[in-house]
Amino acid sequence: xxxxxxxxxxxxxxxxxxxxxxxxxxxxxxxxxxxxxxxxxxxxxxxxxxxxxxxxxxxxxxxxxxxxxxxxxxxxxxxxxxxxxxxxxxxxxxxxxxxxxxxxxxxxxxxxxxxxxxxx
Amino acid sequence: xxxxxxxxxxxxxxxxxxxxxxxxxxxxxxxxxxxxxxxxxxxxxxxxxxxxxxxxxxxxxxxxxxxxxxxxxxxxxxxxxxxxxxxxxxxxxxxxxxxxxxxxxxxxxxxxxxxxxxxxxxxxxxxxxxxxxxxxxxxxxxxxxxxxxxxxxxxxxxxxxxxxxxxxxxxxxxxxxxxxxxxxxxxxxxxxxxxxxxxxxxxxxxxxxxxxxxxxxxxxxxxxxxxxxxxxxxxx
Lengths: 120, 236
Prior knowledge:
A: 120 residues; mainly alpha; 0% strand; extended; B: 236 residues
């Protein structure tokens, strides 16, 4: 558990270091995730202890986003004034977005599927 | 003989109060979610946030004092985002055959759904905070909390938008799939991951393992793509 946590925090700090070094406005944690991902691809596998730590930590991810989300108490006026616009935008973009995303994938599946079989 | 008010005050003023409220309400949310056979509208995060918001609004516990205590929990967010690299790596094999549909659906489809939402709030004259927070609508909350401030949005407003987008998306997706004839597992997974992130991924897992893998991949990919592009495009 602790070994994995050390790995995750090291990569996060490395991400923050790189973001600051190049003055990129990118979250250090996301850069850290990319770097760990690249490491795993190069290594060709995940070590058992790191994998176990991730399995212990990841189920609690939703808990970790609660405190920042509670900050909405400071924006009650915004919700009252513009909540209906935000809701409308969400619903319309879902009604358009879900079919478009599904359709784009489904229509192009034949393309990469046939490419896969022609490799044989 | 007993000093009741001082004793109650000691608990109410304790630096552990916000931490305790967060974990307690989340555990309650988990329980409610399981009892309701996982109804999206009873998502543990929504139940937990609503409960704490109610306490902050109705008592003299200020958000600042709550956060001073609860921020310990928030600090785990960074390492957990890094840990997401592991499921991302393990789901990667699903992409071998379908990388092109995956990319098209994520990049083009993601662009469409984001631009429609941002366009509506922008042209209806909503405030900058709403417009900038809306840019994060297809990013999973963990990522969005870190990205929103860098593009002039508010983390908590973004979190609320993402929460409800996820819930509505998971509720609407099965009907939309039926009406529009979207039957292939990778297509359903991508649509849920891009448009409804974490709540959508849970829904996708209900539909099937392949849907779940594509939804999880899409959620991570959208998060990374947006984290690497939006701050440069919308620098404040």
